[in-house]
Amino acid sequence: xxxxxMQTLKGFRDFFGPQARARLWTISRIREVFELxxxxxxxxxxxxxxxxxxxxxxxxxxxxxxxxxxxxGRDVALRYDQTVPTARVISQYRNELPLPYKRYQIQPVxxxxxxxxxxxREFTQTDIDILGSSSATADAEILACTYESLKKIGFPAxxxxxxxxxxxxSGLENYATSTVSIFxxxxxxxxxTKIGEDGVVEELIQKGLSKESASNxxxxxxxMSINPELAQIIEYAQNLGIPAxxxxxxxxxxxxxxxxxxxxxxxxxPGYSVGSVAAGGRYDTLIEKLGGTNIPxxxxxxxxxxxxxxxxxxxxxxxxxxxxxxxxxxxxxECAPSSLKIATALRKAGISTExxxxxxxxxxxLKYANKKDFQFCVLAGPDExxxxxxTIKNLPxxxxxTVTLDQLIAKxxx
Length: 414
Known about the structure:
Blueprint: H1 17-36, E1 40-41, E2 47-49, H2 50-53, H3 59-62, E3 67-69, E4 75-78, H4 83-92, E5 101-110, E6 122-131, H5 136-153, E7 159-164, H6 165-172, H7 182-189, H8 192-207, H9 211-222, H10 228-239, E8 247-249, E9 263-268, E10 278-282, H11 286-291, E11 297-303, H12 304-313, E12 326-328, H13 336-348, E13 353-355, H14 362-371, E14 376-379, H15 382-387, E15 390-394, E16 399-403, H16 405-413
Parallel strand pairs: 1-5, 7-8, 12-13, 12-14
Antiparallel strand pairs: 2-4, 3-4, 5-6, 6-11, 7-9, 9-10, 10-11, 14-15, 15-16
Helix pairs in contact: 1-5, 1-12, 5-10, 6-9, 7-8, 8-9
């Protein structure tokens, strides 16, 4: 076996210890808000027919889809996002699902992208969608639920950049040509924050626009005004609790995926410079293209991995997440039954408790506790067993005291 096979592929990661706990904690906070807003869970397969996924996101995104033939010779693909599979679900089960259908999905997706900070080849998306409603209230609900989810995690500042594809189409349609489609122009405009104005103009020229048309296209879209439909959505979102200062009309926001038809938005966290942590919008024609049924839809994908990275960068996580709570040591075989009973009593009291596996030396068990960042160590040696007491060590403070089991539980639950 080669050394390369004993490590993860580029863009793929393992999670353990504090990072794994932080991920689970973040998921629980997000799921709590999703459920609070009335969304119900959905899970879809990792593999779909390749024909379902390709041609839905645009030429550039299609290059990032993992496609291959399975052993049956079928052309299949790994899930690129959760929007298209959800569209497939609503089309396939339209007679079984009530409309509007509000769903959330927390699953991994795969993209053959270039790995870099905040961008991975396997990552988790946490999506919400409302399918079967074209009302501005649905758009506003998506915005509000997104905002509240990020606030629930603990981010102090959340900014929603918002636009409407209709604004893009009306501002750019005069610059499209027979060789440079409006979708191609939008895909380049979408890179504005990454490559700057000069980079956008240069790329449009490379695609086939004249320098004058490229410059005018960018200038025109930068001066576009908000349309009435989007203004109403923003008003409703404010009624749902988003402060006016946290929603910013951004006419150059493009969202490069071809299936968007109306409102589009991205979410950034001031102080986190890697990029947006959530993005979404309205996609009213995608389900019809898949299954022939006209079902409007709106949704958002939260970049879960970026949220976790941002929470670490901004020191959002509670300190208790980065350390274990209680380790019950095992002094020797004779004292083991007492240690087992102590661990059981603590767990019944709802205290996260690990029982040391084995009867290694107390020195080794304490080194183990320090390595795993336990807050407390509970010792029950022959003297404690004889006196029906326990010794609790506060590892960060390097202090200890001997108490009864009831006093221990009261101390750890206070």
